[in-house]
């Protein structure tokens, strides 16, 4: 991190580029000096320095431009041919121009007095050796692309590890909720009471508790699941929670069949439903209702969780938002989808609160490069803010 901070300073990058080209200039000057020392026209050491250092510093001035060209026209699978043609053009142009400037400096300032200056001769010399300049361009291009790909690979690994950490945190939070003493006590107490009243119901609740724990453990390593799997998890959770509330909790699910295969983050809906129960049903004296609605629109998977609780007042927005404990949910969405998602809350027209989730509709798992692209979109201007709004 310290190296990245130092590299972020413009003057450090300029100094590093100048230093590298200075070393190359000294190397070229020593080679020029030694090569001509065995001829009938040896070049003086200071003349070799003038020729090669001026040439190296011209490359140093052009290096930021070449790095920009390299980043602007990356050689990637989808656009490799276009980028290749562009780099061949710039490589030829820059290579020929730089060799021509090198030969011009030599012919004007350092050539023996008997060698007259000629534009034709200059062009011929530049054409004969422009491949050296073109090779220099491609070496810079390849080095920059290599460093860029390595940097993006490391950042992608970091994003992946953060996603895994967030998934683990969500799983731990779910397990913590499952193993809280009051949760188990209330569940077991209700099952115990049902054993004397309705053995079939008690048996069903034991089975649902087992299913609930099994589904949680089976998906513990999955970053994404289908909506159908997430709904099965919610059904187990809601059936267990209905024991606590008995007739006070009514759940309605309106799920369009075509969205059941849609992929979404594992355990992403459970915190929304849990908060609907905690802040809607628990705080409501009368019968509680929760509606879960999922459908597809304009390439998006849209899910709404609505309760009939007291909703949220304008003055309580800030504290209510912080009390929901959904920061991890929002962070996971930002890392997976960047700015291409929505997580909003609004007071329902007939009372209560509606939580709205929108993510891209996909039936295949998100690839790591898409997660990284989403993250870059967030860094470069995505807006995944969690909002609370009255309508």
Overview of this protein structure:
By secondary structure, the chain is an alpha/beta fold. Strands 2-4-5-7-6-8 form a 6-stranded mixed β-sheet, with helices on one face. It has a two-stranded antiparallel ribbon with strand order 1-3. β6 and β7 form a beta hairpin. The longest helix has 61 residues. The C terminus is likely disordered.
What would you say about this model in short?
With 391 residues, the protein is of the alpha/beta class. It has helices at 2-7, 10-37, 45-72, 80-110, 119-179, 181-197, 199-218, 227-245, 270-281, 317-323, 327-337, 368-379, and strands at 224-226, 249-255, 263-265, 288-297, 300-307, 342-347, 353-360, 387-389. The model is unreliable at 371-391 (pLDDT under 50).
- Kindly estimate the percentage of residues that lie in beta strands according to DSSP: 5-15%
- Helix/strand-derived category reads alpha/beta
Task: Compute the number of strand runs.
Answer: 8
Question: Please, what is the average pLDDT?
Answer: 76
Strand adjacency order, main sheet? 2-4-5-7-6-8
Low-confidence sequence ranges: 371-391
| DSSP helix fraction | 55-70%
Head-to-tail CA distance between termini: 44 Å
Shape: rod-shaped
Question: What is the overall number of helices?
Answer: 12
Q: What gyration radius follows from the Cα positions, in whole Å?
A: 33 Å
Assembly level: single chain
Main sheet summary: 6 strands, mixed
Query: N-to-C SSE series?
Result: HHHHHHHEHEEHEEHHEEHE
């Amino acid at each position: 991190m310290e190296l990245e901070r130092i590299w972020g300073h413009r003057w450090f990058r300029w100094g590093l580029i100048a230093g590298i080209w200075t070393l190359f200039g000294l190397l070229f000057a020593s080679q020029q000096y030694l090569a001509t020392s065995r001829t009938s026209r040896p070049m003086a050491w200071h003349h070799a320095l003038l020729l090669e250092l001026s040439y190296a510093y011209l490359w140093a001035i052009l290096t930021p431009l070449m790095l920009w060209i390299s980043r602007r026209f990356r050689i990637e699978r989808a656009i490799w041919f276009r980028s290749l043609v562009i780099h061949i053009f710039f490589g030829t142009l820059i290579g020929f121009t730089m060799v021509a400037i090198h030969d011009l400096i030599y012919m004007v300032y350092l050539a023996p007095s008997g060698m007259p200056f000629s534009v034709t001769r200059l062009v011929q010399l530049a054409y004969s050796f422009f491949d050296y300049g073109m090779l220099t361009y491609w070496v810079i291009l390849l080095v920059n692309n290599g460093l860029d790909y390595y940097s993006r690979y490391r950042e992608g690994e970091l994003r992946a590890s953060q996603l895994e950490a967030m998934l683990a945190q969500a799983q731990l939070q779910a397990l913590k909720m499952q193993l809280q003493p009051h949760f188990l006590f209330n569940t077991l107490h209700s099952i115990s009471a049902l054993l004397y009243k309705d053995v079939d119901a008690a048996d069903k609740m034991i089975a649902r508790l087992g299913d609930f724990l099994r589904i949680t453990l089976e998906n513990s390593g999955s970053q994404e699941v289908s909506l159908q799997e997430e709904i099965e998890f919610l059904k187990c959770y809601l059936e267990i929670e209905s024991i606590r509330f008995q007739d006070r909790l009514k759940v309605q699910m309106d799920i369009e069949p075509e969205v059941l295969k849609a992929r979404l983050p594992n355990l992403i809906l459970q915190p929304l439903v849990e908060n609907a129960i905690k802040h809607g049903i628990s705080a409501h004296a009368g019968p509680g209702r929760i509606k879960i609605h999922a459908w597809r629109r304009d390439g998006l998977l849209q899910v709404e969780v609505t309760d009939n609780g007291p909703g949220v007042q304008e003055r309580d927005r800030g504290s209510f938002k912080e009390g929901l404990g959904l920061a991890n949910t929002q962070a996971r969405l930002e890392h997976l989808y960047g700015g291409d998602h929505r997580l909003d809350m609004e007071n329902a027209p007939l009372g209560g609160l509606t939580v709205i989730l929108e993510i891209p509709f996909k039936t295949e798992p998100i690839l790591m490069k898409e997660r990284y692209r989403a993250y870059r979109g967030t860094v470069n201007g995505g807006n995944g803010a969690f909002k609370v709004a009255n309508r």
